[in-house]
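Thread: "does anyone have the structure for this chain?"

Original post by V.I.:
We have the sequence but no experimental structure in hand. Need at least a predicted one for the grant figures.
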Amino acid sequence: FQAQQRRAREEATAQHRGIYICKVDGRGWAHGDWAKLPQIRMVVVQNSLDVSVTDADVALLQGQAALRGNQGSGSVIAGYKRIVTPNDELEASAVLGLRSLLTVTSTRRLGHYTTASLSGTYTWDQGLGLQVTSSRQLTHNSTASLTWVVGPAGASGMALSATHKGTKYVMTGKLDLGLVTSLSSRFTYLLSDNLSLKLTGRFGTSGIDAEVGLSRKFSPTSNVYAGSAIGLNGGTAFKLRYSRAGQVFEFPILLTGDYRDWEYLAAASIIPPLTSLLVMRYVVRPLRSWQRQRTEQQQRKERAEQLRHEAMRAASETALLQPVARRKAAAEAAAGGLVILEAVYGVLHEYRLARAAQQQQQLSAQQLPAQQQQQQNHVQADRQPQQQQPCGEQQHSSQVNGSGSNTSSNTTAHG
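Reply from O.Q.:
Generated one for you, tokens below.
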């Protein structure tokens, strides 16, 4: 038990997150060229681990790598965060890779609804940089955040984002101003407890993108997303994403490089949901039902076996204690002592009520035959005078006949 408690504490103090993206070029198969195999265009791997050293100290470790074509890059990030006061946090991190970076961030809660942070950066090639971020809860369901990158000059810009949560939807909007200016939004609508619709759109200097998809939750820690995306420069792609316990696996599949191929967009938007519906209804649901029935049968067998063992053990214990109990009862009875025939432990009030109801039932069961016998006696008593009246008439007639016979006999004697 103590080992399980230690493992639970270790899992609670450590948070592991990972993102794995594998972009596949499937334009050959999409156009019917089966000889042209799909090719991997980009792979991105990112892992992070947060470990609570103490109640106020957290160690951060992150690694990331990217491969596109024949070129790759990667870096390792190590950091440390400390909660100085309930309203102040201090974090320092270092990025080691092709582009090394040192960052120090101070975060302070200015009020009950406002939080601000100040970050200072240093790179070997660009020097010092500064970033200011402020977030505020506007209403009970709305929040907003403002980020201003002061420097260095090549990375300066500003970003404004807002989020609103409704009973069945979540809406997010973001405006980026800088080297790349864009306006993006995301809308998530909850169709049911486990199914949600997601819409994403972006308009900016780098192009126009749109995405629509469905997300289904299979457990509190796992969900699957399938959607289709179209871009002015990226063409049409189908996205498949699986998330479980902080790990995200995403597979974008490029179907065509021209956004005007609307038939591929229609196929990517209709075929995957329809296939998913058919697979869920005719494959996954029967398998889950079969698995649930099998599990229930196994549990019933295990429970029956457990009850059988418990019954055998209780019978053996009873047989083992019977001679001792009989000997003690006989000894107490011979000595005129007290023999406990029934003992109750627990809520005595409920026991007394149940005992009184049982005695009442026994008394009613004993009185019922007596009442039935008494009713039968009354019925026989009512019938007895009716049966004696004909007997009296018969006796009276016999007496009359007897007197007549005597008369006749006397008459005969005189003759």
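V.I.: this helps a lot. The longest strand covers residues 71-85.
O.Q.: and The first helix runs from residue 2 to 13.
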